[in-house]
């Protein structure tokens, strides 16, 4: 359509501000509305003036009026009936009612009177019949003796009530609506890209957006990109700091350990010091694991998840966890083994720590593999189920205070599993206890 | 937070055993942190080792021109030349056993180190007993190899489609999938493939798989064998380890070395 093509050309040429653009869109719609309405009025008038139907109706009306006026009063209803045709219905009434529905349609009345001057004395009254009552036009004319001729024509005004014509008149509005929709959509598209990019903020892949769109949007994107860079730098430096802390503390800790080994102290004290050092060393290890979680380098490998789970279970069982396993002996998935191994170990360790027993089940589905570690420990308060995925979160109750660790266990699991394209679900079990479920994508076909 | 299977426990073994086996065990320590170098040197001397220590790779090359050692303890983070590069260069000319010390303790460092031909990997902090035990284990494993099959420890072993990559301590299935083994399971399988298609007694198996002291599981050989069988089971459920009544076990399929 030439109109929309013109609009598109304008759109491409002009780079307005968002506000100006929205104003322009409104203006376009107003103009469209105005044009459409004018067109409709124009059509209406033109139709009536030019129509042969008006002349024919006027002629019919004049003849009917004369015939009825000549007929004796008692036979006039019958004569009126005989004068009626399929498209022009005529009735006769002895008197015009004091009030009726007929309102003058001056222009149409003028046209009819113009066609048949004789009707000027008939006090013509016309009305459009609503579509709900059959449509068309109705009217009345007075006979010389004061009685009334009532007529109704469906043809005369069929244009205003025709579905086809209605559609033809609404088409421009529809078209302009589509154009407006397209304009608005194009205007907000950069904003939508921004929203998508914002969801990525804080993850490992930083994406800078091209500056596109209207001036406000461009400014927004530029500000967003700066913010994204700053956040990325903060995250990177946090990672570097944590790694450096972990690394730098290990050497003095190693010295401390060796000094304790050689110190002339009693065995009980030495044992306690060994415990302290090993706890510090575990904290550093978990810090390091958290920093490294989800950053596994290299491509994913084909691994036997069932064997991995069983190895971890056997290790945990040797360390004192009462654990059962239900699942296949072998199950191939593609993943990064080191992270996944740690995630499974962390879940088992939590079960060991809080419950002492665990039920592990591995269920292969068509697209997902489901690994569930369920225990009968105290569980996690419902409102904290999401918190515990956040790093450094420890449940502030009696059972958490005397436990070791920095509150990184589930945070590590969450990050590792997300990096593998999977999901960690946590839920309290009916009857008490926690069930942690790992959902991992099952993509084995590459091998 | 360390996975139980990877976590190494401290062995109760004592140094004098090795002093008897090796009249003089000469160690070389490469560690850039002065106080730590002094402490390790002192503690190992107390355990009867003869030990020399240097701070950098450059010094190491100088010393190695004149002297030889039974084992080198190498810090991964060194000024100038990183421990991994040192090992790479060392392995071109020397076959001396190497134990890495790492302040990073990351899985990746461990795997790269072992693949480059390090004999063991010890994250900081560690205690003297653990270091002594690791030294003993590496030396004993190496000396065993000298008798039977020189320098084969790092080679890959293939049996009925499976690959046992001994340097990286990985088992891969016929389809190429990584199959996790605990340390004890790996050592047991390694013992089996060293004596394929021969009946091996339980005692001998324990002795063979005790060369590495990490994760010295309390589990009996029978439990370990049953765990290993489950992991090696083919689609028909059969594993290549057979029970020989009154004797022990037998690894039933032939192995090839690569």
Automatic annotation (TrEMBL), chain A:
It is an enzyme of class 2 (transferase). SUPFAM superfamilies: ATPase domain of HSP90 chaperone/DNA topoisomerase II/histidine kinase, HAMP domain-like, Homodimeric domain of signal transducing histidine kinase. Its main location: membrane. It comes from the Bacteria. CDD domains: HAMP. InterPro entries: 2C_sensor_his_kinase (IPR050980), HAMP_dom (IPR003660), HATPase_C_sf (IPR036890), HATPase_dom (IPR003594), His_kinase_dom (IPR005467), HisK_dim/P_sf (IPR036097), Sig_transdc_His_kin-like_C (IPR004358). One of its GO terms (cellular component) is plasma membrane. It is found in: Membrane. Keywords: ATP-binding, Kinase, Membrane, Nucleotide-binding, Phosphoprotein, Transferase, Transmembrane, Transmembrane helix. The keyword Ribonucleoprotein does not apply. Residues 244-444 form the Histidine kinase domain. The chain crosses the membrane at residues 14-36. It catalyses: ATP + protein L-histidine = ADP + protein N-phospho-L-histidine. One of its GO terms (molecular function) is ATP binding. Pfam families: HAMP, HATPase_c. Residues 185-236 form the HAMP domain. Its EC number is 2.7.13.3. This is histidine kinase. It comes from Novosphingobium piscinae.
């Amino acid at each position: 359509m030439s109109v929309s093509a013109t609009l598109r050309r304008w759109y491409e040429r002009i780079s307005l501000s968002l506000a100006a653009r929205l104003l322009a869109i409104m203006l376009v719609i107003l103009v469209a509305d105005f044009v459409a309405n004018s067109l409709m009025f124009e059509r209406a008038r033109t139709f009536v003036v030019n129509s042969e139907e008006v002349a024919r109706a006027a002629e019919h009306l004049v003849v009917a009026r004369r015939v009825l006026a000549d007929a004796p009063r008692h036979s006039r209803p019958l004569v009126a009936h005989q004068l009626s045709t399929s498209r022009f219905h005529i009735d006769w009434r002895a008197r015009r009612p004091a009030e009726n529905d007929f309102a003058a349609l001056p222009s149409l009345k003028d046209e009819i009177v113009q066609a048949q001057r004789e009707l000027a004395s008939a006090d013509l009254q016309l009305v459009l019949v609503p579509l709900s009552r059959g449509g068309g036009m109705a009217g009345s004319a007075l006979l010389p003796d004061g009685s009334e001729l009532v007529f109704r024509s469906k043809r005369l005004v069929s244009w205003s009530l025709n579905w086809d014509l209605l559609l033809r008149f609404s088409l421009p509005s529809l078209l302009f609506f589509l154009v407006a929709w397209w304009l608005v959509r194009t205007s907000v598209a950069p904003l939508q890209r921004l929203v998508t990019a914002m969801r990525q903020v804080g993850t490992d892949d930083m994406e800078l957006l091209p500056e596109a769109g209207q001036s406000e949007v461009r400014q927004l994107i530029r500000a967003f990109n700066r913010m994204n860079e700053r956040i990325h730098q903060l995250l990177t430096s946090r990672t570097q700091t944590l790694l450096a802390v972990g690394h730098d503390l290990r050497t003095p800790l190693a010295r401390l350990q060796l000094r304790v080994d050689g110190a002339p102290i009693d065995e009980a004290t030495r044992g306690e010091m060994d415990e302290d050092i090993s706890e510090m060393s575990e904290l550093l290890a978990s810090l390091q694991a958290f920093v490294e979680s989800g950053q596994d380098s290299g491509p994913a490998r084909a691994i036997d998840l069932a064997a991995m789970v069983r190895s971890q279970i056997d290790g945990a069982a040797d360390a004192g966890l009462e654990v059962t396993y239900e699942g296949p002996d072998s199950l191939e998935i593609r993943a990064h083994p080191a992270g996944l191994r740690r995630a499974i170990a962390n879940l088992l360790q939590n079960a060991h720590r809080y419950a002492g027993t665990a039920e592990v089940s591995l269920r292969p589905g068509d697209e997902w593999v489901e690994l569930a570690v369920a225990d009968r420990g105290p569980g996690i308060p419902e409102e904290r189920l999401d918190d515990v995925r956040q790093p450094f979160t420890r449940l502030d109750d009696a059972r958490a205070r005397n436990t070791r660790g920095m509150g990184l266990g589930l945070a590590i699991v969450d990050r590792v599993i997300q990096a593998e394209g999977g999901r960690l679900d946590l839920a309290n079990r009916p009857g008490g206890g926690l069930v942690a479920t790992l959902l991992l994508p099952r993509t084995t076909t590459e091998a | 937070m360390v996975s139980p299977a990877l976590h190494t426990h401290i062995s109760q073994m004592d140094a004098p055993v090795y002093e008897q086996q090796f009249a003089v065990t000469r160690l070389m320590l490469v560690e850039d942190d002065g106080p730590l170098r002094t402490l390790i040197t002192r503690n190992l001397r107390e355990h009867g080792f003869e030990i020399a220590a240097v701070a950098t790779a450059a010094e190491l090359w100088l010393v190695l021109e004149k002297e030889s050692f039974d084992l080198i303890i190498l810090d991964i983070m060194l000024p100038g030349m990183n421990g991994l590069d040192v090992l790479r260069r060392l392995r071109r000319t020397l076959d001396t056993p190497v134990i890495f010390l790492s302040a990073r303790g990351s899985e990746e460092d461990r795997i790269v180190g072992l693949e480059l031909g390090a004999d063991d990997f010890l994250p900081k902090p560690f205690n003297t007993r653990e270091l002594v035990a690791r030294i003993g284990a590496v030396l004993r494993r190496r000396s065993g190899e000298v008798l039977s099959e020189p320098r084969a420890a790092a080679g890959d072993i293939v049996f009925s489609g499976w690959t046992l990559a001994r340097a990286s301590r990985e088992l891969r299935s016929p389809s190429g999938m990584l199959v996790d083994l605990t340390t004890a399971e790996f050592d047991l399988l390694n013992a089996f493939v060293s004596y394929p298609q021969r009946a091996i007694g339980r005692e001998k198996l324990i002795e063979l798989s005790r060369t590495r002291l990490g994760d010295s599981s309390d589990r009996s050989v029978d439990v370990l064998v049953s765990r290993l069988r489950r992991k090696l089971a083919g689609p028909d459920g059969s594993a290549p380890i057979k029970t020989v009544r009154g004797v022990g076990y037998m690894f039933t399929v032939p192995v090839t070395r690569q």
